[in-house]
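Hi Y.,

Following your request, here is the sequence exactly as I used it, all 470 residues.
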Amino acid sequence: MLALQAHFNNLRPFPCKNIVPDQTSQCESASQGQQAMFFAGLYLFALGTGAIKASIASLGGDQFDENDPYEAPQLSSYFNWLMFNITLGACIGVTVMVWISDNIGWDKSFGLCILLIVIGLSILGLGCKKYRHNTPKGSPIVRLLQVFVVAVRNRSLPAPKNGQKLHETYATIGEEIELIPRTDQFRFLDKAAIVTELTPWKTCTITQIEEAKIMLRMLPLILSTIFMNTCLAQLQTFSVQQTLTLNRRLGHFNIPGPSIQFIPLFMMIVSLPLYDKIFVPFARKLTGIPSGIRPLQRVGVGLVLSISSMTIAGIIETKRKQLAFRLDMVDTTEPLPMSVFWLAPQFGIFGLADMFTMVGLLEFFYGESCKGMKSLGMSIAFSSLAFGYLLSSVVVEVVDKVTGGWLASNNLNRDKLNYFYWLLAGLSLVNFGFYLVCSSWYKYKRLDGSKQSQILENELEGDAHLANSI
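Below is the corresponding structure, written out as tokens. Let me know if you'd prefer a different format.
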């Protein structure tokens, strides 16, 4: 839809270029039909992207056995390289595709994207018969709903003093079932395992209840990472607008404004292999954890880096505005005599933050989700990005109204974008405190005793094998 709209003139308004920011209202507006087609294309793209990212992360993770001493470290490495390839694709998008859009045409750029997607899905399909398939038994959402429905229905029943009287299903010979022991958190849900009638909507197993508890424990953690993605949205909107007011020349080449996003992506491309090949093996020797450090620790590092990025962004924006007023260039469309690479620190640091946080979330949700709920866990992890961008629109609107117009003008030289960045840094600091509380409260998933002892034995064997290989 986007390619068609970019190709045919009657499907879009006349292009509006080289207009002073205060006069953009004179440009031709898109009709309701054109807007509907444009947003439909964007929403379909978002729907497809969300589905394939969650599915590909879960499918790739299923190719590694978490309980195998040799495959467990590779699982952690997989998420690093998954993000590496996603980032590499994004780098091509903000450089090659942007250049094609600016110099050849948006329709050619969208058409090339379609071709690459078809090729990628075709290559993925070639390996269908070779993949390990972890087929869930029923819908994970239905399993969760059953727990809450039965718990509410049994709310008036007395809870057994002996937890062993609660219902559980054990594996038969030749069958493998992941059993999770009962925990003390959210004990009101335990009543769903009181045996009244052995049907799914009348009695749940302890493992099924613990699956619901895990999802409840994960909820505050995912909420505490949303605001970081709200800050990320500013780098892809306001910071790109900043580039249009700065000197974007690199030698004889004029850098397109959106291509400045190459900087955080480049930082991720460089840091991911270094993290995976240098830091993780070193940290693994110290901690004995296959991934070097725990995923929640990795997420915490990313949140701290995002605070630093927003603070630096406020400082750089203050310098940019001061230069515009000093040279009396507040209302001009001419770029300021200030290099666009002054924005590199805030972009680069946020690239590192994204590397720590996003991969940490993927690893955490995949590792903590039960079998049959891996895809749901991946979807929840990626939903942090979606809700962060959605919250960004709300934050901008609220801040603009409360402050009386910090961001009301189309002219950044007259806006208070630096104050907005510092506000985000302060709110990010508060959010980090909330994350520390949530992460310290979280209890990691435990398997039943026999299974847990086997995993620990495998990890010791794996550490010995790694030591010998080194």
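The radius of gyration is 26 Å.

Thanks again,
Q.
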